[in-house]
Amino acid sequence: MTTLSTATAIVPPHALALDGFALSGTIPARMEKLARRLLRARNPDCAVVKRLRRLRHASADGLGHLTVRTPDRAQRLHYRFGTSDEDVIWQIFGGGDYDLTRLRRFDDISRLVERRAAAGQRPLIIDAGANIGVSAVFFALTFPTAVVVAIEPEASNFALLERNTQGLGVHCRRAALSAEAGHATVHDGGEGPWSFRTEKAAQPGGGVPCLTINELFAAHAGPDVFPFLVKIDIEGGEEDVFGRNTQWVAQTPVIITELHDWLLPGQRTALPFLRCISALDRDFVYLGEDVFSIDNRLAG
């Protein structure tokens, strides 16, 4: 049996640093919020917007870029100016959306990862609704030994997901998360690149393939890899995922999901999640936009 170093099992998120995600080194911090708002106006004829975009750190292909640094490595991220890509970066690396150290149960969770590392086991993290890969990069850097599987159905987001996770060993799958196998079509939610939604394809074989978490656990978990964390942000698709075939839930110490009743009023998309989770011995913690569901047996 190989014993993994418990010292490298978790990198505290406060050890991560961003380089290059600023409008300009000379722009006062108090103006940054206004500048980001102007950039999001998406008016190509606005001279102020054009000037601000020229001040951004841009790569040869016109994308913005930044570097995420840990004590041991640097990871380049690319993003699209004036889009929800910027909000994703700020939420995850600025707001700490998926920072488990905010939880009072973090010590329990940390000890679980360390115990498994001492037994030679790596954590499996499923990132469903991975968008351009910012969350996958966060998970891969904070849990360096983890097997990270990132799922994103939309083509342009997926291209950046692959690019942004390069060198981290993240398994990228262009697919939709579902409760059962099949295919799904992708639809623009109209609120930027983070708003794409999926629905079952009308024709067999149309659209992108559907993957289930049970299927992903079977493919990636094993004697040396244990299910650890599942993050789900799929714009209402959680109604399907938690509606049936939920054997995986009881196997997962930490589940993070954003519920979307606010986006889809009257459709009760959160109900299957609430029914599924309430039947189990799990804590239910709301932090920001996300629910953290923690198994009281596995994380204790």
From TrEMBL:
Any one Gene Ontology BP term: methylation
Methyltransferase FkbM domain location: 127-263
Coiled-coil boundaries: none
Keyword hit for Transferase: yes
GO molecular function, one term: methyltransferase activity
Keyword annotations from UniProtKB, A to Z: Methyltransferase, Transferase
PANTHER family: METHYLTRANSFERASE, FKBM FAMILY PROTEIN (PTHR34203), SLL1173 PROTEIN (PTHR34203:SF15)
Listed name of the protein: FkbM family methyltransferase
